[in-house]
Backbone:
């Protein structure tokens, strides 16, 4: 059997292995944020797991270019694309923003802790920038409301740039995007105080860097022969190991290379030729990938509520992390907390995310001639 093949360019193909990896990355981001003194809390791999957000940007650029690069022909197509993308991210974002505002109103009425309502990162003005999805466009001096939503704000900017480039320069948008990616990477490594751990300030350059590398990869992917069989499996194992080692090791300016690592990871798993891909194609992992956006969006609110309760019950003797005096008990608590996050995320996915997507897709479905 030939060890090399060319991937079939299927316009509406769903990359299930890549989707499953997105679910895994969402879990790792939750682990990074979880303030529990568990065994894994001090691992370098988890300490640097904020870098897995950049997998989302690279994957988004790859998938969006695959689905839309040849479909945006007119300004009307571009408008339909933006409405559909808005419909993918805004309903869950508004749900969590409303949850946080509700928490502030409860704080205002019941005074259950010492935090002053609607101050700091929870101002009334920031509600409006969040509603417009511009909160991470270097407007505020810190994250606001639901912190993880900064990625949606940055990705929204990428959608706008993508649609404009495809409409204006459909044959060259990937190469123009590459220039923007280089500029974004240079801005981050030169000016961001924490390099790739940048959010509200250099969020858009960070996202543009990964997103348009993903777009370029998609354009090249259909022309690069791919390995098959054992060679493909070996390449997949090597890509996973290399990614884990890099994330665990990377600090400082070198973190800028993480998007290049994720470009390699996406390229390797897009073809789904090896045994690791077939493992990732398992329905349980594919389902996790489909829940990943909801998991990512709800987890910080649940952790915020948990911290309020933990402080009331003196579960945080050091003031920073929940610690029951036994690391094994801490592990069990963290696993239970994660399970609760998944349950809430699944409910949000079924009751808000999916219905909103169906509604928006129905509104924007092209009328038959």
Residues:
């Amino acid at each position: 059997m030939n060890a090399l093949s060319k991937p079939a360019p299927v316009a509406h193909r769903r990359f299930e292995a890549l989707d499953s990896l997105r679910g895994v990355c969402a879990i790792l981001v939750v682990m990074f944020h979880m303030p529990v003194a568990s065994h894994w809390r001090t691992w370098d791999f988890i300490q640097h797991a904020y870098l897995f957000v950049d997998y989302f940007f690279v994957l988004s650029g790859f998938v969006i270019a695959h689905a839309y690069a040849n479909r945006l022909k007119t300004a009307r197509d571009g408008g339909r694309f933006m409405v559909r993308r808005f419909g993918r991210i805004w309903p869950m974002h508004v749900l969590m923003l409303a949850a946080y505002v509700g928490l502030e109103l409860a704080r205002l009425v019941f005074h259950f802790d010492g935090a002053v309502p609607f101050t700091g990162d929870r101002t009334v003005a920031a509600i409006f920038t969040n509603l417009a999805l511009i909160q991470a466009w270097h407007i505020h001096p810190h994250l606001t409301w639901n912190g993880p939503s900064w990625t949606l704000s940055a990705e929204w900017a990428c959608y706008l740039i993508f649609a404009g480039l495809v409409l204006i320069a459909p044959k060259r948008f990937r190469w123009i995007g590459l220039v923007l990616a280089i500029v974004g990477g240079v801005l981050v490594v030169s000016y961001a105080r924490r390099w790739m751990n940048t959010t509200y300030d250099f969020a858009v350059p960070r996202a543009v860097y990964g997103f348009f590398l993903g777009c370029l990869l998609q354009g090249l992917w259909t022309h690069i022969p791919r390995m098959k069989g054992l060679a493909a499996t070996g390449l997949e194992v090597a890509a996973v190991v290399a990614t884990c080692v890099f994330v665990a090791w990377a600090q400082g300016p070198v973190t800028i290379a993480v998007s290049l690592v994720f470009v390699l990871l996406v390229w390797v798993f897009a073809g789904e030729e090896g045994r690791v891909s077939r493992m990732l194609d398992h329905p349980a992992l594919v389902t996790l990938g489909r829940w990943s956006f909801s998991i990512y969006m709800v987890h910080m609110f649940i952790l915020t509520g948990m911290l309020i309760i933990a402080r009331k019950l003196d579960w945080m003797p050091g003031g920073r992390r929940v610690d029951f005096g036994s690391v094994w008990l801490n592990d069990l608590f963290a696993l239970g907390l994660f399970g609760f996050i998944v349950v809430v995320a699944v409910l949000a996915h079924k009751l808000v995310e999916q219905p909103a997507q169906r509604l928006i897709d129905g509104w924007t479905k092209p009328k038959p001639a």
Summary: The mean pLDDT is 91. The beta strands are 4-5, 226-227.
